[in-house]
Amino acid sequence: MPKLAQDLLPIINHKLDAVVPSDIRRFDKYVSQFDDVVKLTLGEPDLNTPEHIKQAAIRDIENNDSHYGPQSGKPELLQAISKYVKGVTGVDYDPASEITVTVGATEALNCSLSVLLNDGDKVIVPTPVWSMYMQLVCLTGATPVEVDTSDTGFILTPEKLEEVIEREGKGVKAVMLNDPTNPTGVTYPKEVIEGLAEVIKKHHMYAISDEIYSELIYGDAKHYSLATYIPDRTIFISGLSKSHAMTGWRLGYICGPAEIMASVRKMNDFMITVVTNNVQAAAIEALTNGLDDPKEFRDIYQRRVNFMEKGLKKLGFDMALPRGAFYIFAKIPEKYQGDDVGFAKSLAKDARVGVIPGSYFGAGGAGYVRMSYASSDEVLKEALKRITKFVEAE
After folding, report:
1. Which residue segment(s) compose the domain that 378 sits in?
2. How far apart are alpha carbons 133 and 216 in whole angstroms?
3. Do 197 and 229 meet the contact criterion of CB atoms below 8 Å apart?
4. DSSP structure string for 140-196
5. CA–CA separation, 125 and 271 (whole Å)
6. Which element (helix H / strand E) includes 370?
7. Residue 1 falls within a domain, yes or no?
8. Nearest CA among 261, 287, 281 for reference residue 112
């Protein structure tokens, strides 16, 4: 087993020093050591990719589609993305110059941030939020500016955004928004999106809008995109991982004005060369003949969130109103004194239920835990049964 030469140890990219491995994955590994554990830790749908999408990929393989394709994506897929996104946002993105296909939304974020940011830039990140945002910003040499939204219903209000920009002064390059939000499940009202758009326009900033959960909206809630109001300033990011239960397929995409997308496409070419052909064939099918697939998933998730919300409230958990994605962000009962990490560890060890501490999602998440309800009804019933026994025995 080779060991690195000692003189080479210091010769690395030191931007990595500021980045730690994912706390979420680390805690999931901690939870996994316990026998018979019921895990509500990861945003991993238990549902399967629809059969017609899988068959499209199989046909593509059987047709020997095994050579390099266009680097920004197959023309048919770019057309399908353009048509779909126009239906969602009202923005007509040109498939030939304003869209690129990526290896999931994570790579899309990494690609976009690498294009936009320089050392010393600042990016406003409302928390709680998926922790990878902060890590990806740090990798560019820029600084994430966390904004605690726990006192505004887990929503970055226009007033709070204005306040943070004024406080930070020069160097604020962009704001990152995830809507619906991981980990809270909160969706942004139209008037808030409109207000944020005005502030962003006023301060000559970019908006990086991660809308990966936009197809998973429940009840009377509706999704509104920043791209609708400031398309000239928005980098729109999405994919099929959540909407079509395709997390392992790794298919994402970026849309934006041609002037910035020329650089985004160039960066994406350097990062991946091209997205796998049969994955793109599956995506074409999903966005052409599978636009109704998410409805079935929404109905399932709606039933699950109602079940978990009702049961947890009986136990004294307060929570953000989950109207999107597939997470419940629950404030732990007062008797645990806000120690979300300690609570989550005890729950895993003593009750064999895995959840993620809220503080792992930034300062705004302290005192909460995230529970994913992207698990089967049986798993959720067993988890709630164990949580009930654990809380009532304390």
Report:
1. 6-49+293-393
2. 21
3. yes
4. TT-EEEEEE-TTTTT---HHHHHHHHHHH-TTEEEEEEESS-TTT-----HHHHHHH
5. 24
6. strand 368-372
7. no
8. 261
Cα angle 109, 115, 121 (rounded to 5 degrees) comes to: 95
Could you read off the pLDDT of 75-113 as tens digits, one per residue? 999 999 999 999 999 999 999 999 999 999 999 999 999
**Rounded Cα gap, residues 337 and 74, in angstroms:** 53
CA distance 95 to 92: 9
Of 272, 289, 306, the residue that ends a domain is 289
pLDDT at residue 36, as a whole number: 94
Q: Are 230 and 198 contacting, i.e. CB atoms less than 8 angstroms apart? A: no
User: What is the C-alpha to C-alpha distance for residues 267 and 106, in angstroms, rounded to an integer?
Assistant: 14
Give which of 47, 84, 355, 334 is closest to 225, Cα–Cα.
Answer: 84
d(CA 368, CA 317): 9
Task: Give the total residue count for the chain.
Answer: 394
Does the structure show a pLDDT above 70 at 394? no
